[in-house]
Structures are given as C-alpha cells and as structure tokens.
Amino acid sequence: MKLVVSLAVCLISAGSVFASSSLIQKAKNSRLEAIPATQEALMKLIDDKNDPITKEKVELGKKLYFDPRMSKSGLISCNTCHNLGLGGADGIPAAIGHGWTANPHHLNSPTVYNSVFFKAQFWDGRSPHLADQAQGPVQAGPEMAAPPKLVEDRINSIAEYVQEFKGAYGDDVKIDFEKITATIATFEKTLVTPSKFDDFLNGDENALNKEEKEGLVTFIDKGCTSCHSGIALGGTMQPFQIAAKYKFTNVGDFKGDENGMVKTPTLRNITETAPYFHNGQIWSLSEAVKEMGSTQLGIKIDDNDAAKIVTFLKALKGDKPEIIYPQLPESSINTPKPSAN
Amino acid sequence: MKLVVSLAVCLISAGSVFASSSLIQKAKNSRLEAIPATQEALMKLIDDKNDPITKEKVELGKKLYFDPRMSKSGLISCNTCHNLGLGGADGIPAAIGHGWTANPHHLNSPTVYNSVFFKAQFWDGRSPHLADQAQGPVQAGPEMAAPPKLVEDRINSIAEYVQEFKGAYGDDVKIDFEKITATIATFEKTLVTPSKFDDFLNGDENALNKEEKEGLVTFIDKGCTSCHSGIALGGTMQPFQIAAKYKFTNVGDFKGDENGMVKTPTLRNITETAPYFHNGQIWSLSEAVKEMGSTQLGIKIDDNDAAKIVTFLKALKGDKPEIIYPQLPESSINTPKPSAN
C-alpha cells in the first residue's frame, strides 16, 4: 500500500504538481488575472465612457506616438524610449533624451505594452492613468523637452492633423496639450499583448506545457505574486526594499514615492525588456529573479528554481498588435521649427 | 485672320501649352523618366542578379533598418534620420547622431525613398550604390558610431537574426558587416514611391490636372531638368554653385567632391522633406525654387512661376509602400551592451 501511494506521488510529480484545473484556481487565488479572451470583455475593462476608444482616435494617437515633432528637437518620439518593436521599451539602462541627457535619477524606461492595466504610472506612481502620464515625458527637459504651447502650435499648424482631430472629436475640438496627449493615451490603451498564459487562465489547460506549469507553481510558491499580480503581473505600488539593502542604490538616487513605495514593473514580455529594475542594472533575467528573492522576499531562490520561474516568465511573451507604420502629415511653413538646443 | 490666331493662342494658353501627349514627349525629351508601371519592369531595373531581392532579405533588412542596436548607443536606427513616416528624412537642418552630435559639415539627411534610382550616394557622391552607402552612417562617429565588429557581434549574438540570415542566404552565410549592411540596402531598394506624375509619363494623360501640367512645362522651360532628371528627378552629380555664390556657404564647410560636384537631391516627395539644400537652410519650397533659379540657372524665377513649379512638385508625392512595424528579435545575454559614450 505504501509503495502504491509513493508511486502515485511520483507520477504526479513527474506530470505536474497540480492538475491543471486546480493550478488555474491556485493562480487565480494568488490574484493572477488573464487578459480577457474576448474583445468585448477587454473593451469593458479598458474603455472610458467619457472618452471612448474609437478607430479615429487610435489611428491619430498612433501617428502622434510615432511623431518626433512631439519633441523640441524634432528627433524624439514616444516610440524612441517605448519602442513597439523592442517590447515597448528601449533596451538601455537609463533613458536618454533631449541633448543626449540621461534620466537624472538613472531611471529605466518601462514598457508601454499592457500599461493600461497598471494601477499607477511612473516608477513613483505619481500618475493615475496613461492620459496623465503622457504629459510628463513630452515636457520633461531630459526627455522630449517640448513645452505644451510648442506642441499645440506644431500640431495646429499641420492641416492634416487638425482635420484628423476634427474627425476624431468633432469640428469644435480644441486641440490643446491635454487633448493631444489624451489621444496618444487612447492609442496606448490598445497595446495589449495576450499570451499563452492568458489562454491557460482562461481555461485552456494545455496552453502551458509541463515545465511552464512547474514554473508557475514555483513563481506562486516562492511568493512572487505578492507584488506581481493582477492582469499586468505588476503595475501596483509596493514597498521596494531599495533604500535599505538594494545593491544598486549607488546608481541613481531614486527613492520611490513619499512612503518609499515603487511601482512594480509588469512581467509581461519581460524577456524583451532587459535590462531590469528601476535603474536597469541587471541584464540577466535569472539573476533578476534571484535578486528579488533575496532582496524583496528574504529567501534564497537557487539556480534551479530561478530557471523554472524564467521558463514561466517566457510564457508571458504576448502577441503584439500589428502596427502599420504611419505616414505622418506634412509640416507647413508655419510649423514651429525643431531646435536641438 | 490675325484675331483668329490670337484667339487660338489664347485658348491654348488657357488650356495647356501642349496637348498632353506632346507634353509627355517633351518631358521625356528633357530626360524625365517614370518609375516603371509594372512590378516586372521595376524589378528589371533595380534587381541585382548577384544578390537578388527576395522576400526573406527584404523582411530581414527591414528589421535591421528599424533596429537601434545597429548603433553603439542602442538608440539610433537607420529610421531615426531616414524616417519612413516623414518622407524618408528627419525634418531637421543638419543630421544629429550619437552623443547629440550635429553633422560636422552641417549636412542635411537625404531621403531614402527612391534612392535606389540615384547614380551616386551621399552629397559628395562617394558611394556608387546603397550597399556601399549603408556602411557609412553605421560607423560614422557623429551618426551611429558602431564599429563593424560591434555590429557583427550584436547581430550574431541574437539567435533569431542568425536564423533569418540563414533563411535569406543559406546555412553557410557569413554574417559580417558587409552582409548586414547589404541586407539593409536590399530593403531600401524596395522603397519606391510611384506618383501621379509616373502615371502621366506612363501614358495616362489625365493623371495630371491643368495646373500640374502648366507647372511641368514651367519646370522644363526654366531649365530645372538640366539637373533634376532621370527617374529620381535628381541623384546625379552636378556642378553646384555653392562655393562661388551660394548664400548659405557660411553654414557648414561642405564643398562637394574633388571637382566641386554635388549630388542633386531627388524632387520626389519634396513637400515632405523640408528643410532644403545640403545644409537644410531653406524651409520654404517656393523660396528654394527661386534660389535655384538665381544660383544655378542664372535666371529670376518670379513668384508666379515658382508657384507653378511648386504645383508640379506636389504631384511628385508618391504612394509609400506599406510597412508593418517589425517586431525585433530579443537580445541574448551575450549581446554586446549599448554604450551612450
């Protein structure tokens, strides 16, 4: 009898620790959530009845997102630091912007993909949503360095843009800085990347293979979901142990919000967005996993468990929306000129 | 009888100076050429039997064209200065590259669209073709600042790129700097933008309206085709009167090739690629037309004629190939790191 039980345990271990259906339940109990499987359910989640997502706004927002004339120099677009071909980020440790200036706090550019699911924007969470967030980098001296009036004058001087704003919002639209950046945010809301992990959570028990399921179990059991939860597996403010013991404290002086809280990065598409952490000082994903174990969770995650977790994280790589590179409307003779200084 | 003749002349003037069919002939006699109307004829013109254009090479070349990891900093791609959404150029007077360095000769970034039709590349014509040209900016310190070995090490460290090179060239491909830049050039060859002017030259007499035809006549009669001819309406080396009398000589120290010859810019999509001239010092297209009249042709082109010519130039705006923004392959842990310095 004893032998039979051991054998049964062995077989279960060789398969997966949980039957898939109970693993789905375990993941949900750990506050992991799927991107909704249907467009209707997704829209219910991300749409704003006061500023509904429409095809016209998304197309216009896409143009503005890719348009370097949103910056003082005429060289830097949203896509420069949040590159939709590079996992929605820039692949460098600290953002570099206008005048080749590095971010003064040595902060790493977070991905724009799935940022609609974040509860707060920016590393210190100071923005409640994307429309508010989009106003920041455009104006910031070390980023795009464009005062609101310059952006408004540029866009209003370009006839085709004016027409498209009217098409999106009606003929009496006031094309001001808030409207322009809100339109970019509407485009950004559509940058959602469903993965096989979502298929799994949505009920397809075979969407993850055995190793990925083991990785998911390890991810949960080690406590990673205490911060990396929700649809984004991140995007909420958490007490990041940076000031006390984080070994990269000497790179940059970033401290989080007034309570020392820091926005947890999303883990979706994480294999595409090295280097990691707020100051981009770690390039290896397994090293990052082990570092979070010791720094945040106070446990040692060994190489074996780190590899399992990385296997799960790879399953978070999602399908990117197809983006047709936009043809941007021509400047006019009245368009304020770019300035590199 | 005299009255009748005058009336007839009047009517002809009010319509167009030439019957369309003879205007097509006049344009061809002035060495203006159409982009071929069929894909077959176009391929015959641009394809290279030693390195044939294939779907695999074009797709791979597109990724490399958009990949900022082609630069030392990881921030600058070919598309930064030759932006396919901005007429294939950057919209600023002098190119700015690595370290926010302006082009040392204050040279303006020329468009990549239709550059396959140029007889020489670079303002001083020092490159005979695109594959040779593409090697320059990648390495140039004030542009992408990436030594060939860095580029080779980066691309060879990215498994998906290696696979795609094998798919494009065969399993024994050597992925060296020449192969990488030649692949970019193969993509660039496809950046051809047929316009209604081509439809006209190819026999559709109604493709240009009356004003555009008048503009074409003025363009030819004023002598613009003495330099702006061929398919590109430019792209050949011509004696540019810069040193002697060009009023912008004090901006930059560019002198052309050893004979003082300068590559004539293409006029295709010219409304999208302000500012104009080698040093980007003129923003108004009609001003540029008048300047060329006095500087190059030794004639005064008045406002009226300049406006006519500009009307014709607008008809050179072509249809851009649809570009699906590429998802770039992930770096590996062995990929040489970006460096902003």
From TrEMBL, chains A, B:
Xref: Gene3D superfamilies: Cytochrome c-like domain (1.10.760.10)
Keyword Translocase: no
Signal peptide: none
Entry binding sites for heme c 1: 78, 81-82, 98
Keywords: Heme, Iron, Metal-binding, Oxidoreductase, Periplasm, Peroxidase, Signal
Localization: Periplasm
GO cellular component terms, semicolon-separated: periplasmic space
InterPro entries: Cyt_c-like_dom, Cyt_c-like_dom_sf, Cytochrome_c_Peroxidase/MauG, Di-haem_cyt_c_peroxidsae, MauG/Cytc_peroxidase
Protein name: Periplasmic diheme cytochrome c peroxidase
Gene name in the database record: ccpA
